[in-house]
Design brief:
By secondary structure, the chain is α+β, with helices and mostly antiparallel strands. The chain is built from five helices and five strands; from the N terminus they run ααααβββαββ. α1 runs antiparallel to α3 and α2 (about 35-90) packs antiparallel against α3.
């Protein structure tokens, strides 16, 4: 048996559909905020910076290890120079003094070479530290910008949530006035096809934008006011009003 419902109850479906359309639009807005795309871009950039920073910190630690090794070598050579110098000063053997002075000359050359290398490594350390500092600063700046955008995003989402709460409340109030069998049909069609009810205006089903054929219009004109008619193009409940062109 075909479903029947009072024209006034069928008209309520248009209000219900308007609320559902509004809720869908709000959900789309929440998922399509430009702030979300901006934050996604920031997250990608931040990940790249973190990887770069990790590599730079690794290189920095390698230079520090190299510098500590050189400092240790310098300390060893300086200790030997100090020891040999003391031995020269205290030795009475010409042969021993000659040998020590030769060793001291070699040690001083070695010390000079080490100090030159040490200077180069210290410059390298400074350059690497600058790279780390610059990348860290860039990452901090990006995080600060992301925090600002997150504030804007949250404000937008709060606004959308407030609108959604109001729309959901309105929908609930309208749904409570619609007969259960008519509401169930509406919900079923909306779940399947995306639209539960469509206004017939001037012979056009607004859900699909399709103008009904003359034979379809004749069938609708012949239907009782409380007959529930389905739209052939959108599968939504076709709601007739004074605008329908009947």
């Amino acid at each position: 048996m075909a479903l029947k419902a009072a024209p006034a109850d069928q008209a309520l479906l248009l209000d219900l559909q308007a609320f559902d359309t509004k809720l869908a639009q709000l959900d789309h807005r929440a998922k399509s905020l430009p702030e979300l795309a901006t934050l996604a871009g920031f997250a990608k950039d931040a990940e790249a910076l973190r990887l770069t920073l990790g590599e730079q910190n690794g290189a920095l630690e390698d230079v520090k290890i190299e510098l500590r090794r050189l400092e240790s070598d310098v300390e060893v050579v300086e200790t030997r120079i100090a020891r040999d110098t003391e031995r020269v000063q205290s030795s009475s053997s010409v042969k021993d003094v000659s040998a020590l002075e030769q060793e001291l000359a070699a040690l001083r050359k070695r010390l000079g070479d080490l100090e030159e290398i040490e200077l180069t490594v210290m410059e390298k350390l400074e350059e690497q530290q600058t790279l780390v500092d610059n990348t860290t600063a860039a990452l901090d700046a990006l995080r600060a910008r992301a925090a600002e955008v997150e504030v804007d995003r949250d404000a937008q989402l709060d606004s959308i949530a407030a609108e959604r709460t109001a729309a959901a409340g309105g929908r609930e109030a309208v749904a409570a006035k619609i007969p259960a069998d008519l509401l169930a049909l509406y919900e079923r069609q909306r779940a399947r096809y995306g639209t539960g009810a469509s206004l017939l205006r001037g012979g056009v089903s607004l859900a699909s934008g399709v103008k009904l054929l003359e034979n379809e219009m004749q069938a609708i004109r012949a239907a009782a006011p409380d007959d529930v008619i389905m739209c052939a193009s959108s599968e939504a409940i076709l709601v007739r009003t004074a605008e329908s062109g009947l």
